[in-house]
Amino acid sequence: MSGILRQDAYLGRTTNFKYSKPSFKSKKTVLNPPEKRMTFEDTHPAIIDPDTWEIVQKNREKRRRPMKQDEIGLFSGLVVCSGCGKRLYHSRATSLKHEQESYTCGTYRRYRNQCSAHYIRVVVLEELVLQNLQRVVAYAREDEDEFVRRVIENKLAVQRTEQEQSKRKLEKQKRRIAELDAIIQRLYEDNVMGKLTDERFAKLSATYETEQAELKQSVESLSAIVEASEAQAVNIKSFLKIVKKYTEPTELTPQLLHEFVDKIVVHEADKSSGHRIQRIDVHYNFIGEIDFSPEYCG
Question: What would the pLDDT profile of 78-95 be if each residue is shown by its tens digit?
Fold first, then answer.
């Protein structure tokens, strides 16, 4: 079944050179990376639209194994920690009631010193996500033009922040690469003049050259991120198409969640006021986060 869901032929395209053999003597075939394949569009009628295809592929990537009770959690694969970015694990047992089930940061559960206790009860998560979804759907239905304006404005703000962070890091790394060039040049001169032994020169230059190579690779990655963020666009039409399929949601279902939601970020509870304040951020397919994230006080 999973192989069928991977087939891009349903999009009306034909992809050649998906597999190859390590050598002509080998009978084993390996999957080629995307850049080695050749795709031809519109070779036959499509039976699925690109938006649905994209959602299916995302869901396949996030798919989790059934739990001991042979039941996959409602938020399986969707919930992540705001601290470390790792998945939250569904904690449940036959002895626990549904009201007692929770999601907990996997990093904190294994390594207490690497993250803090990002924890949320399932019933609270259900309530917050449903509230968020109801507000977003209602907003999109009642004032579509204003909704589109706000989504674009929000996306541009996020892109600007990401670009600025990446550009600052990029400039810092480029300066360090230039510094390393000067350091390596001085080492070479000291070696030629006899101030530095060949052994010491080889050791120091190797260390600096390794750092420089890693920085150059990082610079290439950051440059790609900056360029990609400048070219990104939100696909609001695809999101609105999903909105029109549903009336106001009154309960969460796996289908509803996976059609609408890309990920749910859970923040650590704030107890400074004497109450437990829990915040989540819901990121939607095609449009990203809309700031309708409610908080739970309990």
Answer: 999 998 888 888 877 666
State how far the Cα of 18 lies from the Cα of 70, in Å rounded to an integer: 35
Beta bridge partners of 263: 283
In three-state secondary structure terms, 236 is: helix
> Which H or E run includes 254?
helix 254-260
pLDDT given at position 264: 92
Closest CA to 61 of 85, 79, 77, 74: 77
pTM, whole model, 2 decimals?
A: 0.58
DSSP 136-189: HHHHHHH-HHHHHHHHHHHHHHHHHHHHHHHHHHHHHHHHHHHHHHHHHHHHHH
Q: 261-266 and 277-284: which strand pairing?
A: antiparallel
| Residue owning tokens 């990029």 | 170
pLDDT (average), residues 98-114: 82
Sign of CA dihedral 100, 105, 109, 110: positive
